[in-house]
Amino acid sequence: MTYPLPESVRALQARVRHFVDESLIPHETEAEMNGGLLPEKVRAAHRRRVEELGLRAMNMPKELGGGGLTYLKQAIVSEQLGRVTNALGWCVTTPARCLLDVATPHQLETWIRPTIAGRRHECYAVTEAGAGSDVDAIATTARRDGEHYVIDGEKWHATGSNEADHFVLQAKIAGGPNDGAHALFFVDKGTPGIDLVRTPAYSHNYASHHPIYAFRDVRVPAANRIGAEGQGMEFTYDWFRYERMMIAARCCGAAERLIDEARGFALERRAFGERIADFQAIQFMLADSLTELWAARLMTYRLAAAHDEGEDVKILHAQCSMAKLYASEMANRVADRAVQIFGGRGYMRENVAERFYRELRVDRIWEGTSEIQRVIIAGQLYKRGAAALVG
Ligand SMILES: Cc1cc2nc3c(=O)[nH]c(=O)nc-3n(C[C@H](O)[C@H](O)[C@H](O)COP(=O)(O)OP(=O)(O)OC[C@H]3O[C@@H](n4cnc5c(N)ncnc54)[C@H](O)[C@@H]3O)c2cc1C
Questions:
Q1: C-beta 283 within 6 A of ligand 1
Q2: 206-238 per-position pLDDT tens digit
Q3: I need a surface site. Which of 146, 168, 243, 311 has the fewest CB within 10 A?
Q4: 155 Cα distance to chain centroid
Q5: Distance from Cα 202 to the centre of ligand 1, integer Å
Q6: Cβ of 37 less than 6 Å from ligand 1
Q7: What count of Cα atoms within 13 Å lies in the side-chain half-sphere of residue 351?
């Protein structure tokens, strides 16, 4: 045992692992060859299985219809889902939990409960052409007009917005006492003034696309504002922390799968009359990969447990950055080595290493690039000292 996981967590890990191995992995190549799409019958079967496993909206409270899992359990689930390519693991949803603290009864009934139930789908629209790492540079505005806000701007990369029913959109307030403050809004996709600009192709083949949407004079009721004017960044930071931790977990799962697959191949494949597993060059790549995976996994599990223990959020913020930074860079190194071990086969799209090699690249970019994680970590180190963060 590499980490003292409670029995209930191990049991969940085994159930999700079985689901991934039996129901998701067999569909990877089909999804890859079809732009990420699987037949609706298969997707429905995946959703049913997710329900049976109690993983629907696994991060949301049970009383609202979610899975009510601890952070440690969520990390364990995400790690297993990370073992599959083409985002087939995204059949397990994790709506933005931070919104619950401020949601009005109307918002709960209109957007949050239906999203938990899987009847509606959300996407998160923060990034713009001129603002990614520097979120404060967003140019999208929300101008109060009586009982409405009028939203103007353009959003990039919003993951899953092709399948979503509504945006959780970040804008800057224009005019009034909070001019320039950030705020979040629920914006239904059918609202007049929202136009699909284009759907760029990305390195991966996922059913969830990342289109560009324009918002021109989009009127939304003031009741759609989430929390207060000025609270937008607070929720986005909360979302970043959660996503960074789950990215770390998924990267651990991806690395484990890659190591297993590369090990299996190395033990079978022969060159110059010998198993390639017996060449030191191959051994070193596998040994480095396994060692780095263990380090990343220990960080991630510990981080998730620290969330459950209610550790200071400022410490968690830095630790989420460390886990995301290390696990995503680790998984990219592992994928690169796995491609190398597979040789020419590692360059074929039907090979798991080739797919992960492309897919894992974005984990060093989204939810804050590796450079931004380092900026956060260094800033926290200067402010609090090493012992507060890793002591
Ligand atoms: C597939 C995909 C899905 C995404 N999904 C979503 C989504 O659902 N919702 C959403 O809102 N956004 C989403 N994003 C956007 C993503 O979060 C941003 O792309 C990311 O934060 C980087 O921003 P940027 O692309 O504008 O790069 P920039 O911020 O322009 O950065 C360019 C380069 O400069 C570096 N850099 C910037 N600032 C610094 C600094 N201070 N110090 C050192 N280096 C720096 C960066 O690290 C990077 O190397 C997605 C992106 C992708 C690719």
A1: no
A2: 999 999 999 999 999 999 999 999 999 999 999
A3: 146
A4: 18
A5: 14
A6: no
A7: 20
